[in-house]
Design a protein that fits this description.
The complex is a heterodimer of chains A (583) and B (280).
Chain A (H helix, E strand, L loop, with lengths): L12 H9 L2 H18 L1 H4 L31 H37 L1 H16 L2 H11 L4 H28 L2 H8 L4 H37 L10 H10 L9 H25 L13 E4 L11 E12 L2 E12 L3 E5 L6 H9 L7 E4 L1 E4 L2 E2 L5 H10 L1 E4 L13 H13 L3 H14 L5 H6 L7 H13 L5 E5 L7 H18 L2 E6 L2 H7 L2 E6 L2 E7 H6 L4 H9 L23
Chain B lengths: L10 E10 L9 E11 L4 E5 L6 H9 L4 E8 L2 E2 L5 H7 L3 E4 L13 H10 L5 H14 L16 H13 L5 E5 L7 H18 L2 E6 L2 H7 L2 E6 L2 E7 H6 L4 H9 L5 H16 L1
Parallel strand pairs in B: 3-8, 3-9, 6-7, 7-8
Antiparallel strand pairs in B: 1-2, 1-4, 4-5, 9-10
The chains are: A alpha/beta (583), B alpha/beta (280).
Chain lengths: 583, 280
């Protein structure tokens, strides 16, 4: 391997390990586990007594130099039993983990990767195993086959294998749908190599977490079995120590402390290590408890006497996330009945500008404005209740992704009726009538059926019509549409734009249309503001923007539109000899 | 459809049917492509236009061996390839490659660009040093900086990621690349630059493209010939200029009239035409 190949960012497992070790909790857990393992391994060095050597004179002996933790109910050295018992627990836990993964792992991998009959069969087998009561099976095995606790742990591993199977199968299923797996297949990689390079790395992290949990559970169950008196008498274990302590609980309660503490610490360290790994992976949801209003600062008394037809005035709007400013001094106005196009490339801040008018920015956003007023009311000084009253009634919103903006759990009718009942105070029947009228108005052929449908039962174009119906249902004066047709087919887009135009004209609404598509702008906008890197570089009537763009950036954007360019023409040189690109 | 060129086609689709089995026993399978015929000559770009659900992506996947061909035949250099065994299919990956739409999910986020690009070479037994030398050259070809090799995909913008995906497609020196909406997720300015890169590469290497897209202006810019797909059938084929200016099929006409033009006056005209066409 040449030194070129030394990647600065080591991918996959190494990075996970390093991230985990940065968590002090994880370091403590690892230290505890290491201590338990070291003490168990070094048992013969740390104590002179055999764990099952009973001396009657030492029965319930107090702590002393000879017996640091005293003697138990039948005169065995507690310290020795604790150390050797650790071996039993660690070996038992490890056995359960190994068996669970040896059985569940490959089955999960194959099931998830190949699906088909194997998946069906494995799924069936797994369901059968999960239906079996674990403790009873282990008791039966121990009674019938062997008194050895390790056998019980192997059985436990098999019983826990379904959990591993399901986890791994689910992870593999998710990865195999990724385009990069398809790309690898097209690159000529065989299944084994795809598994090794693309699937296994994704499976390892959740497996580590699962392993720590199985380990902890196994130690607990093993102790339970030993506490019940199962297991060979010669096999020292924490569970058996607890059992002995329990019989002497009134005479020597302190005997409960040592095995209890050892088990508690080991189980705790193991499961918390799992949590730390999960945190390092960042798979937990970000903790957003509730959404407080964004931090806003506004120049004093920013409400102004409205010009007669002025709907919205934005002056000097700034939106920042920490150090990063995404909107930097934007000023726009929207008149009644006017359609303003907000155009720019991704990252230009056009959606952020629209969202700050709606008060819908995430809570980390810091919003400042010299003026942000809707019909003369300063938006930033409104309470959340006042803002809610304004959203829907004063300002309507049409989102980009129609499907993700309808709640899949509720019928479309309900989602239309509720806001009208709340905002307009309509009765259920009136709201229903109005909703059906609206659905008919937005060009839905069978309003009754759509009213009764769930979102997944209608197409994307229909869903967008439903959302438009919802946006205008409470008669807003201003509509904010964020790339409303980007997710739609071009024929559907044309119809939706027609609908938006006719609704806008019919109700004399103002509208802000956020888009990257100059065709859409040309179709519907009266005025255009072009945004670049958080600033408005040019703002002019639509005709002027297209005919005589004033800013270089606008000109560059217009020049990149492919429409109207020459077609490529016919292939002139058929069968041009293949030159090597890479040599 | 036969190619207007006299050379023998590189890729031929003959009455190809793709069906996905329906859920539940005894139900009729879902037929995505109902007998599609198409050919691609060496060095040629054939644009495949259609709306969502038309089967255009499925057609691309069928050529790549990622969708089940249940009827008809796909021939590559005259050889049937739609029902190959896994090993033979893998051998074909030397010649047929892909660039997917979404540059965010088509690159493994845990692998460096170097790993992503050397992988297809190493699998065919190219020595690592040689593979890395070739990858450095490839990065030049797609105008990525040399230090790109040791970074992770997430450090790149959408347009740059698409260049990485193009480099991956190129690294085995294929004769055909299936491009599945490769510029749809990109910004306008980036889109134009990536399309020009596609054309430049084609002129330098003579690779053929099967270029799947929903955008008539994109297809016009890059294609020599265009096929329009509607609900699993090809409804019109022809030269790019002819199909995108003077379509004959009513559906293609509808498609053309629905695409908004970046000029308010012409767009108003087009809108009026469209409304007239739908009214009649």
């Amino acid at each position: 391997m040449t030194d070129v190949a030394q990647a600065p960012a080591a991918p996959g497992r190494d990075r996970l390990l390093r991230r985990t070790l940065r968590d002090p909790l994880a370091v403590v857990c690892l230290a505890v586990l290491a201590l338990v393992i070291a003490a168990s391994l070094a048992a013969p060095l740390l104590t002179d007594y055999a764990p099952d050597h009973s001396v009657l004179a030492d029965t319930l002996a107090p702590m002393s130099g000879a017996h640091p933790l005293g003697g138990d109910g039948v005169g065995r050295d507690v310290m020795s039993r604790l150390l050797y018992g650790g071996r039993t627990s660690l070996v038992g836990g490890t056995l359960a983990v190994l068996v669970a993964f040896a059985v569940g792992g490959p089955l999960g991998l194959i099931s998830g990767f190949y699906r088909g009959w194997f998946d069906a069969l494995a799924g069936w087998a797994v369901n059968v195993i999960m239906a079996v009561p674990a403790i009873i099976v282990m008791l039966v095995v121990m009674a019938a086959v062997s008194q050895d606790l390790n056998i019980a742990m192997i059985v436990l591993g098999v019983i826990m294998a379904p959990m591993v199977f399901r986890l791994i199968r689910a992870s593999v299923l998710a990865v195999r749908e990724e385009l990069y797996v398809d790309a690898a297949r097209v690159s000529g990689l065989g299944d084994a190599r795809i598994m090794r390079r693309h699937v296994l790395p994704v499976v390892i992290a959740p497996s580590v977490i699962q392993a720590t949990q199985v380990f902890a559970v196994a130690i607990g169950i093993q102790a339970g079995l030993a506490f019940l008196g199962l297991g060979k008498a010669s096999q020292a274990s924490w569970g058996a120590m607890l059992g002995d302590a329990f019989t002497n609980v009134y005479t020597a309660p302190v005997l409960l402390v040592w095995p209890g503490a050892a088990m508690g610490l080991t189980i705790l360290a193991s499961s918390m290590l799992g949590n730390a790994v999960r945190d390092a992976l960042g798979t937990t949801q970000p903790r957003v408890t509730k959404r407080p209003r964004p931090v806003v600062r506004t120049a004093a008394g920013s409400a102004v006497a409205p010009a007669e037809d002025r709907l919205l005035t934005v002056e000097g709007l700034r939106v920042a996330y920490g150090e990063k400013t995404v909107v930097d001094g934007v000023s726009i106005t929207v008149e009644r009945g006017e359609v303003l196009g907000l155009v720019g490339e991704s990252g230009s801040g056009k959606s952020q500008t629209a969202f700050s008018v709606l008060g819908l920015l995430p809570y980390e956003a810091e919003v400042k404005a010299d003026q942000l007023a809707f019909e003369g009311k300063a938006l930033l000084s409104l309470s959340l209740d006042q803002l809610n009253a304004l959203r829907g009634r004063g300002i309507g919103y049409i989102p980009q992704e129609p499907m993700s903006n309808l709640d899949p759990c509720f019928r479309i009718g309900f989602q239309l009726v509720e806001p009208m009942r709340k905002h307009l105070g309509l009765s259920r029947a009136d709201a229903r009538t109005k909703a059906l009228e609206l659905l008919a108005r937005v060009g839905i052929p069978d309003p009754e059926r759509v009213f009764r449908s769930y979102p997944h039962q209608i197409s994307g174009g229909m869903a967008q019509r439903v959302l438009i119906a919802g946006a205008v249902s409470c008669d807003p004066r201003l509509l904010i549409a964020d790339e409303p047709t980007t997710a739609l087919d071009v024929t559907v887009q044309a119809e939706v734009l027609d609908l938006m135009r006719s609704l806008q004209q019919e109700r004399h609404m103002g509208m802000i249309l956020v888009t990257h598509d100059f065709g859409v702008v040309a179709d519907i906008c009266d005025r255009v503001a072009v945004m670049q890197k958080g600033r408005i570089v040019e703002s002019a009537p639509a005709g002027q923007i297209f005919a005589a763009p004033g800013h270089d950036y606008t000109r560059m954007l217009l020049d990149s539109t492919l429409e109207g360019g020459p077609a490529r023409g016919e292939l002139l040189r058929p069968g041009t000899p293949l030159k090597e690109v890479t040599s | 459809m036969t190619s207007p060129l006299l050379t023998s086609p590189l890729l031929e689709l003959d009455d190809v049917v793709v069906e996905y089995p329906a859920k539940g026993r005894g139900r009729k399978p879902f037929r995505v492509l109902h007998g599609v015929s198409l050919s691609v000559a060496p060095g040629e770009t054939v644009g495949l236009v259609g709306e969502s659900g038309s089967g255009k992506t499925t057609l691309g996947r069928a050529v790549l061996g990622l969708a089940p061909v249940t009827g008809g035949e796909i021939r590559y250099e005259g050889r049937p390839v739609s029902r190959l065994a896994k090993r033979e299919r893998r051998a074909l990956s030397k010649d047929i490659q892909v660039v997917f739409q979404d540059p965010f999910t088509s690159l493994n986020p845990a692998m460096t660009v170097m790993d992503i690009l050397t992988e297809p070479l190493l699998v065919t037994g190219v020595a690592r040093a040689e593979a890395e030398r070739r990858v450095q050259k490839l990065l030049d070809h797609v105008y990525l900086p040399q230090d790109a090799a040791h970074r992770l995909p997430r450090e790149f913008s959408g347009g740059q990621r698409q260049r990485i995906a193009i480099a991956r497609a190129l690294c085995r020196e294929p004769k055909l690349i299936v491009c599945d909406e490769p510029v749809s997720a990109l910004d306008l300015t980036t889109q134009a630059r990536v399309l020009d890169l596609f054309i430049e590469i084609q002129e330098a290497t003579g690779v053929a493209y099967l270029f799947v897209t929903h955008d008539l202006s994109v297809v016009r810019h890059i294609s020599h010939r265009v096929a329009v797909l509607y609900r699993g059938d090809i409804v019109e084929t022809g030269d790019a200029a002819q199909v995108t200016e003077r379509p004959e099929n009513p559906y293609t006409k509808r498609l053309l009239l629905a695409a908004p033009v970046p000029d308010p006056e012409r767009q108003a005209q087009r809108r009026a035409e469209r409304l007239k066409a739908t009214a009649s």
